[in-house]
Specification:
The chain is of the alpha/beta class and 246 residues long. It has one domain: 3-Layer(aba) Sandwich (Rossmann fold). It is 47% helix and 15% strand. It contains ten helices and seven strands. It has helices at 13-24, 38-50, 65-78, 102-112, 114-130, 142-145, 151-171, 189-192, 196-204, 214-224; strands at 4-7, 28-33, 56-59, 84-87, 133-138, 176-183, 236-239. Strands 3-2-1-4-5-6-7 form a seven-stranded parallel β-sheet, sandwiched between helices. Strand 2, helix 2 (38-50) and strand 3 form a beta-alpha-beta unit. Helix 3 runs parallel beside helix 5 and helix 5 (114-130) packs parallel to helix 7. The mean pLDDT is 95.
C-alpha cells in the first residue's frame, strides 16, 4: 500500500537518508522545510529526482502550530491523509546554563519538543480513526545521558521519549504505534564541521570505533514504520555504537 509519510526537516542530512529509505518502501514521501529554506528545498528536491526519488516538499515552521495545521491540511487536500510521521526537525543553541538566554532555551524547546506536538496533533486523530499509523520521534543520545552546554537540547530530546511513551499508550489498541530513535554521533555535515581534533576524541569514546552514518538511522525508521513492526510501540532505539549503554 502506498502510504503517505511526512518527514519534518527532511532536507537535512539525516532527513535525506530517511526520505530515501521510506521512498524505497514505496511510501509517498513528503519533506517539510522552513520558510527561509525555500530555494534550498527546491534544489534538494531536484537532487532527489536525479537519484530517482519523487519526494514532495511542503513549507512548515514546526514551532508554529498554525503553520503545521495549514501544511497538513494542504497535504490532505492535494495528496491524502498522513499515515506515517517522522518528527525529525531539530535545532541546537548550545551554551552553558550560566550563559544560556531565555531565547536560547525557548527556541530549542519550541522546535525540538513542541514541534513534535504541533505536527502530531494534526495527524493523530486521523490515524486512530483509520486504525493504522506510525510515528517515530528522533531524539538523541544527549537526551539520555545529558551533555555539557546542552541543557535546552538534552531536555527537549528527553521530553520526546516521554511524549512517545504517553502517545504509544493512547494509540496502541487502535494500531497507531509510536517509537523513539536516539542517535549517537552521526556523520552529518553538522558533526563533520566539528574540529577534527575534537571529533577524533569523540570517536575514541565510541566502542565500535567510528561515527554512525545517516543510513543507520534511516534503516531503523523504515523498519519501525513497516507493517511487519506491528508489535513494537513505546520503545526507544539507542543507535550510538555503544557510546552510551544502560
Amino acid at each position: 500500500m502506498n502510504r503517505i509519510a511526512v518527514v519534518t526537516g527532511g532536507i537535512g542530512g539525516l532527513g535525506t537518508a530517511i526520505c530515501r529509505d521510506l521512498a524505497r518502501q514505496d511510501r509517498h514521501v513528503i519533506s517539510t522545510y522552513r520558510p527561509v529554506n525555500h530555494d534550498k528545498a527546491l534544489e534538494w528536491q531536484e537532487e532527489r529526482r536525479k537519484e530517482g526519488f519523487d519526494i514532495a516538499i511542503y513549507e512548515a515552521d514546526v514551532a508554529d502550530f498554525d503553520s503545521c495545521k495549514e501544511m497538513i491540511s494542504k497535504v490532505e487536500k492535494e495528496i491524502g491523509q498522513v499515515d506515517i510521521l517522522i518528527n525529525n526537525a531539530g535545532i541546537t543553541r548550545d551554551s552553558t546554563m550560566k550563559r544560556m538566554t531565555q531565547e536560547d532555551w525557548e527556541m530549542v524547546i519550541n522546535v525540538d519538543l513542541t514541534g513534535a506536538f504541533n505536527m502530531t496533533k494534526q495527524v493523530f486523530a486521523g490515524m486512530l480513526e483509520r486504525q493504522w499509523g506510525r510515528i517515530v520521534n528522533i531524539s538523541s543520545i544527549n537526551g539520555q545521558k545529558g551533555q555539557f552546554g546542552q541543557a535546552n537540547y538534552s531536555a527537549a530530546k528527553a521530553g520526546l521519549h516521554g511524549f512517545t511513551k504517553a502517545l504509544a499508550r493512547e494509540g496502541a489498541r487502535k494500531g497507531v504505534l509510536v517509537n523513539t530513535i536516539s542517535p549517537g554521533y552521526i556523520a552529518t555535515s553538522m558533526v563533520m564541521a566539528v574540529a577534527e581534533e575534537i571529533r577524533n576524541k569523540i570517536i575514541e569514546e565510541i566502542p565500535v570505533g567510528h561515527l554512525g552514518v545517516p543510513e543507520d538511522i534511516a534503516r531503523t525508521v523504515a523498519f519501525l514504520t513497516d507493517d511487519a513492526a506491528g508489535y513494537i510501540t513505546g520503545a526507544n532505539f539507542s543507535i550510538n555504537g555503544g557510546h552510551h549503554m544502560f
